[in-house]
Write a structure and sequence with these properties.
InterPro entries: CAT-like_dom_sf (IPR023213), Condensation_dom (IPR001242). By secondary structure, the protein is α+β, with helices and mostly antiparallel strands. The chain has a single domain, classed as Chloramphenicol acetyltransferase-like domain (Chloramphenicol Acetyltransferase, 2-Layer Sandwich). Helices cover about 35% and strands about 20% of the residues. It has six helices and seven strands. The strands form two sheets. The protein has a four-stranded mixed sheet, sandwiched between helices. Strands 1-4-3 form a three-stranded antiparallel sheet, with helices on one face. A hairpin with a 2-residue loop joins strand 6 (about 130-135) and strand 7 (about 140-150). Helix 2 (about 45-60) crosses helix 4 (about 155-170). The chain is globular, with a radius of gyration of 21 Å.
Length: about 240
Amino acid sequence: MALSEVRNDVRLPVTAAQLGVWVAQRLAPESALYQCAVHFDSGPLDIEVLRRSVARAVAETEALRARFGDDGEVFQVISGTGTGTGTGALEPPVDLIDLSATPDPEAAARAWMDEDLGTTPDLEAGPLFRHALLVLSESRHFFYLRYHHIVLDGFGQTRYLDRVARVYSALLAGEEPGPMRARGLGALVEEESAYRESAHHGSDREFLLERLAGAEERQSLADGTAGTAPRALRLRTALP
């Protein structure tokens, strides 16, 4: 696998999965349903080292830097990073939200995250992600990442945050982080295109059509299809 490049703006086609999310978002432009978020409850942090770690990880992660357009064909543009000179040069911030003086810092932090998660995305302008460090006290922080599902899925989120953690640990120890070895989006788009033009795609399609032949129509207690929810619901429970 080749190293992801730090470069100026690059236009690429979208993948089939991205196209599906793009269409769904266009059908409900005010919906925040495809906004995703995760946060980590942590102790003391070196904020400047965290910011440097995020900047490096974003520079290495093309998917996060994507924004989307439509000129008769849906496409994505990978913005350059702060080290580039393109018009889309990006220096990702880590917003510092100090809630330590509020009566209930944890409740205030959760309310802040819920409100941010409901932000309406702009797929054309971007950026489609946000980092924040919510300060509950000197010894407790929430590190928060919000991203649109068109740029990351659960697996991608895990890999990205693992990279942030590895870079942070290395820099905190005064060491130089090793490079992140990952294919860029261009390679993934080419791989999907090659598959769709291959004999394997045709045989896979025929297999599924044969397997599903004669399947019953789906059953439903409703007469129609429910509309798109404006945002996801969150349920928190403690496991024994």
